[in-house]
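About this split. The held-out portion is used to measure sequence recovery: a designer receives only the structure tokens and must propose an amino acid at every position. Recovery is the fraction of positions where the proposal matches the reference. Here is one held-out target exactly as it appears in the evaluation file.
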């Protein structure tokens, strides 16, 4: 379902953390002077996934957990677009887990914002894979998406923001989109986005967040160092935030697709597939299969 680029008033509960993401996305697109027609937001299923309805950019409401597959497809079809995928922890870490892990490996230059509130807000507060033990009868240990991201040896941008600190979130989203624009690969930002109706964690998270850039030894170009720093900080009962991985290595896209296959960054969506221009190629293809 492709939405029109007309924003509708938000349906979120007053105070929902997702508002922080909405305003930070608007601010970053404005700061980078990206026109509405040049940006696409693919939303997941859940309160968070409706974010595209409240923006005046192109938007798609994807199938539950499948937003990354659609976002990668859009980016490949038209690499000039700024592509943002945005959804919840139920969407991305439960039904969408397979796509989440593969997105790091595919390393397409798009931004994935995952709004983490430990619950399924839209369906009234069940335990998400991130829920602590005891939440709504949950007996499983919570899943940590940042550990999963940092465990992979790939040149991806990885960060965590907090809706209670929208200014820092804005800066990090701007950096992530710039990273994408430079063709340096996939950017993943998990936002701590409290669900004020079913799991109001604002107060607790405000006390526990710790920006890793304030610690000695912080070096986001070195994934292994950052993984260690991250784990040590979690062990101290803190919730690490900030940029965890800002790789210096070029992405697969920069090395293969962009430089070799798509020298002018012209994707299939803009290429001329008319018969006249491509007759020789089509004839060759036909000969090969007959
Ligand atoms: C295939 C499928 N399974 C289940 C659902 C029911 N469902 C709707 S939203 C949702 C979870 C949303 O949680 P999350 O992604 O964390 O978003 P939030 O509402 O917390 O922002 C579920 C399970 C669905 N819509 N489609
Ligand atoms: S139910 Fe929770 S996640 Fe959904 S809009 Fe309300 S506060 Fe936000
Ligand atoms: Mg959720």
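Reference sequence for scoring:
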């Amino acid at each position: 379902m492709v939405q029109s680029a007309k924003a509708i008033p938000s349906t979120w509960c007053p105070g929902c953390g997702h508002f922080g993401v909405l305003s930070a996305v608007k601010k970053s697109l404005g700061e980078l002077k990206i026109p509405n027609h040049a940006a696409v937001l693919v939303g997941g299923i859940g309160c968070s996934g409706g974010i595209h309805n409240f923006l005046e950019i192109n938007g798609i409401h994807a199938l539950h957990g499948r937003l990354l597959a659609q976002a990668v497809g859009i980016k490949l079809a038209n690499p000039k677009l700024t592509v943002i995928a945005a959804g919840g922890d139920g969407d991305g870490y439960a039904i969408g887990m397979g796509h989440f892990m593969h997105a790091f490996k595919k390393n397409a230059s798009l931004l994935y914002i995952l709004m983490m509130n430990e619950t399924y807000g839209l369906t009234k507060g069940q335990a998400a894979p991130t829920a602590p033990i005891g939440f709504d009868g949950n007996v499983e240990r919570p899943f940590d998406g940042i550990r999963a991201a940092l465990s992979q040896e790939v040149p991806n941008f990885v960060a965590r923001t907090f809706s209670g600190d929208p200014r820092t979130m804005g800066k990090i989203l701007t950096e992530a989109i710039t990273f994408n624009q430079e063709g340096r690969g996939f950017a993943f930002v998990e936002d701590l986005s409290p669900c004020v109706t079913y799991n109001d964690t604002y107060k607790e998270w405000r006390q526990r967040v710790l920006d890793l850039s304030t610690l000695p030894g912080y070096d986001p170009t070195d994934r292994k160092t950052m993984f260690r720093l991250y784990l040590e900080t979690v062990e101290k009962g803190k919730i690490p935030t900030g940029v965890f991985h800002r790789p210096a290595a070029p992405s697969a896209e920069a090395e293969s697709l962009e430089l070799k296959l798509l020298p002018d960054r012209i994707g299939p969506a803009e290429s001329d597939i008319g018969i006249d221009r491509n007759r020789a190629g089509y004839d060759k293809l036909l000969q090969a299969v007959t």
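Annotator remark: The first helix runs from residue 18 to 31.
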